[in-house]
Amino acid sequence: MTSNSETKLIIPGLTGIYETFGPLSFALLRFAFGATLFWHGYFKLFHGAAPIVANKILTPMGFPAPLAWAYWLGVLEFFGGAMIAFGLLTRPIALLLVIEMIIVTFGWNFRFGFFFTAPGGGWEFPLALLTSSILFLFYGGGRYSIDRTIGKEF
Which of 47, 77, 104, 128 is the most buried (most CB within 10 A)? Predict the structure, then answer.
């Protein structure tokens, strides 16, 4: 990401605030994104949502072994969400999430319209998750991540 010092600000006195809190805001976004996915995975794995996803979404989409896929998505969202939240293996997990969110957004939710409050759920929320996944795929975990701490990123 570019630093704010490369941009002429309307209020130059805010430069220090932006430079201080910019990297923290990226970490906050990464954590919120990961935590959101973590809870989706948790409900798939531990609260019976995987069979519902398998029967109501993956079967109509024509996925073979839909229950296995639903549990795989639960594992990806549960463990991958936690890993993204803390910035561990951010890019590989984000790549898997980009694939998932493309399918969710355009393969399932697109038919219900834009607003996620529409019956069946629209594509507004999955699109936000997709674009966030793309962001983490290309930018990695950022300054405050385990990836950066150990000095290894894919």
Answer: 77
